[in-house]
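sorry to bug you again but im stuck and you know this stuff better than me. below you get a single protein, a line of residues and a line of whole numbers that encode the local backbone shape. mainly i need to know what kind of three dimensional shape the backbone takes. anything you notice is useful, everything is just below:

***
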Amino acid sequence: MADSQIRTEDTNVPSDVFVHAFEQVPVPLAILDQQGRWRVANACMRDILGMRIQAGDDWLLCLENPDEMAAAQKSALEGEPQTQIPVQWTASEQALEALASLRRLDGKEPGLLLSLQVLPGSLTPGIQDTVTGLIGHALFMDRLNLAMARQRRNRSELSLMMVSVDNLVPIGAQQGPSTADAIVQEVADRIQSCVRRSDSLARLGGDSFALLFEEVGNSLEAIALAGKIFDALRQDVVLDEGAFSLDISIGTVMARGEQETWQLMQKVDQALYQAQKNGGNTYEMVV
């Protein structure tokens, strides 16, 4: 599934924006055809469901109680408003509980966009990253949701940051997965050296990391942290195989007011995309 191509001609958004947002955003997303079969899933969905995702399979076959979702799938294709439906995958030793929502994707070949909100306490592979020992996307999203609730209640500010090692894939292709893993571990160690014990650092999968920075004083403090992390990561990583210069892009945002979690995630993804679009090796803030 990781090798599947996103069919951007079936969407009504620019292809480069869609591909980046779909693959990088740390929310489980998938595109289904009209029959409810998997077309492609993003990195977050693949990390959660793993080998249960096979292009062409009916996604309902993995569910414990598919009837309600089958009706919701039909309603979504007919363009009706979609509410979140509880779902549970039971095709593994650890069941995944989540809220699923479906939205019609119009285009040459109409389909569905599936999104999941993993419920707190659900046991998924996204709890901990096996390479770095950092928390994974599922636990990070739980922490972010709780932090956002505290931020709204206390009328405080928090900062969310995404870090991408843009040249990790070519390094891994040339040097092998063990070298890529060693670089990922070094990146994790360097970021951790820049932040407080109370901050939440996660590996979202592949070349992406996320950082939740609570009780931040203002945007200047957040951008200073981004600069500190950027400087630390731009120093060469020296391994037995040689010295490697990393291409680093960082996007950061401030949470203020009554923003929803998904809105903040969208903004930080835009900030990261802007940094990469500007040539990489920089950091951007979206206010």
In short: Residues 8-118 form a domain with the Beta-Lactamase fold (CATH 3.30.450.20). Helices lie at 15-24, 43-49, 66-77, 137-154, 168-175, 177-194, 219-233, 261-277. The chain has eight helices and twelve strands.
